Amino acid sequence: RQELAGGKVVDNITLKLDYLIIGTLSCKHWRYQAHGRKIEKAIDYRDNRGAALKILSEEQWQSYLG
Predict the structure, then answer these.
(1) What is the DSSP annotation of the chain?
(2) For residues 3 and 48, what is the distance between their CA atoms, to the nearest angstrom?
(3) Could you give the CA distance from residue 53 to residue 29 in angstroms, rounded to a whole number?
(4) 31 touches 59 (CB < 8 A)
């Protein structure tokens, strides 16, 4: 679905990333799970390195797609 909307799925967080979509498997203990490191890296890039990165929940992303 994301490819149809012009998106591209990638495995890594980079400074070129526009959006990080956080899936429904995230929980209040996200920092201690494997995907939590990606969220931390995305926050660092956004807040400290000037990346124009948006972090969205899966529900927000789906509502934008329609």
Answers:
(1) -TTTTT----SS--TT--EEEE-TT--TTGGGSHHHHHHHHHHHHHHHS----EEEEHHHHHHHH-
(2) 29
(3) 22
(4) no
Structure tokens at 42: 């995305």
Q: State which amino acid sits at residue 2.
A: Q
How far apart are alpha carbons 48 and 60 in whole angstroms? Answer: 24
**pLDDT tens digits, residue range 6-53?**
778 888 899 999 999 887 665 565 555 556 788 889 999 999 999 999
Find where tokens 């956080």 sit. Answer: 22
pTM: 0.71
* Distance of alpha carbon 54 from alpha carbon 21, whole angstroms: 8
d(CA 61, CA 48): 24
CA atoms within 13 A on the CB side of 23: 4
Residue 24 DSSP symbol: T
